[in-house]
Amino acid sequence: HVAATVDMLRRTTPLRLFWARDYSDYHPEQPGGSAAGRTCECRPFDTSQLGEYRTRLEPGLMEVTVPMPTTGADYRWMNLVARVPRKGIPTYGKRLTQGVGGRLLGRRYAAGGQGLMAGLFTGVLRAGIPVWTGTALTRLAREGDRVTGAVVEHDGREVTITARRGVVLATGGFDHSMDMRWKFQSESLGANLSLGAAANTGDGIRAGQDVGAGIDLMDQAWWFPAVAPLPGKAPAVMLAERSLPGCLIVDQHGRRFANEATDYMSFGQRLLQLERSGSPVEAMWIVFDQQYRNSYVFGAELFPRMRIPQTWYDAGIAVRADNLTDLGARMGVEVSEFFATMTRFNQNAAAGEDPDFGRGRSAYDRYYGDPTVKPNPNLRPLVNGPFYAVKMVLSDLGTCGGLKTDERARVLREDGAAIAGLYAIGNTAANAFGTTYPGAGATIAQGLVYGYIAAREAAREAGRHQV
């Protein structure tokens, strides 16, 4: 169904996709894994084609103040601009020209998930499909055991929308329903730390449960470690930062607890695993030296050599010291443990090894490493100060537990029987990959593919075999 979905997108939307070569699967060493990767991205898309709907787009994950539509493939080299300028500088030049030049011509380009959503929605508008915004799902309508529509609140009144072929729930997860998150995931999760859309509060999941649907994987989310936010701000995701040489992450004891370069979902799962085993990570810091700060982009806003903002220090998000002992004291960790951690890490990093957590062994780790650092692009000792530490939090891209579904996107009861007329896709359904994030784009990809499947199934049920 994947190839058919891509073909459908090419036919019905203005999107153009490309293969992000060498963007490794997140677990390439597993059976069937690929170090070359299989991620497809959309080319930067002109969102001005949406007209009045453009302002309704959710912000991008790593937006900068300068208009610069950045793909995932671009990000790798932009992040290394100070280390691999022959690739980083042309990439910046290309996207700055497109972004700034586009503005002069009345075009507003976006890439990544934002660009993809804009292209998909443009296809919807061109097809003449009616769209209701500002509409909240209240409950599902039924006739007997069959779902026949949805009751929504629209323009201040309750409206019943009848669906002869079926209802597809694609209302997102429960990212911002803290009651649900504390119940199913962890009471330690902080409010307002999810990067999911603010409207994702579990409406579709609860509506499905009300008609007898089962749920699964509710303890799971697309976890993402991030820079602790300033008051009133959103967390800044940490993607490549954790993989680059010259840094490590420690807990409140000053000890490492994970492979920093692992994929973001696995990193979050490691944190929750430690919590459930009785050894919670109560504080988390990324530690780095001046060479690291001079070499790489940090937190999507600090370019190489830029000073860490004073506001970070004032808020207690960042600390700085000329030596590691003083740094540990300012972080509030156990100084002796921290110094022992740094000593062991530096000795192993000098040899390009991480016997504790295997950092740099996976092709995924190395993808976001520094290819100019040998023998391990993910490791280098931290020797010369000043040294820095920045506080981290566990954020996420959204939850990925939800309604039980089958391979036909049909919603299932707890006993495995399908609920007639009801389908669920995306984060409203339990993750099709179980507890795994197999590769970049897996969140959106399964929503697209199962959306295609659900539409075909609904049409087939109604006696129509072409979508």
TrEMBL record:
Its cofactor is FAD. It comes from the Bacteria. Residues 5-444 form the FAD-dependent oxidoreductase 2 FAD-binding domain. GO terms for molecular function: steroid dehydrogenase activity, acting on the CH-CH group of donors. Keywords: FAD, Flavoprotein, Oxidoreductase. Coiled coil: none annotated. Pfam families: FAD_binding_2 (PF00890). SUPFAM superfamilies: FAD/NAD(P)-binding domain, Succinate dehydrogenase/fumarate reductase flavoprotein, catalytic domain. One of its GO terms (biological process) is steroid metabolic process. NCBIfam families: PRK12845.1 (NF009479). PANTHER family: 3-OXOSTEROID 1-DEHYDROGENASE, FUMARATE REDUCTASE. This is 3-ketosteroid-delta-1-dehydrogenase. It comes from Mycobacterium colombiense.
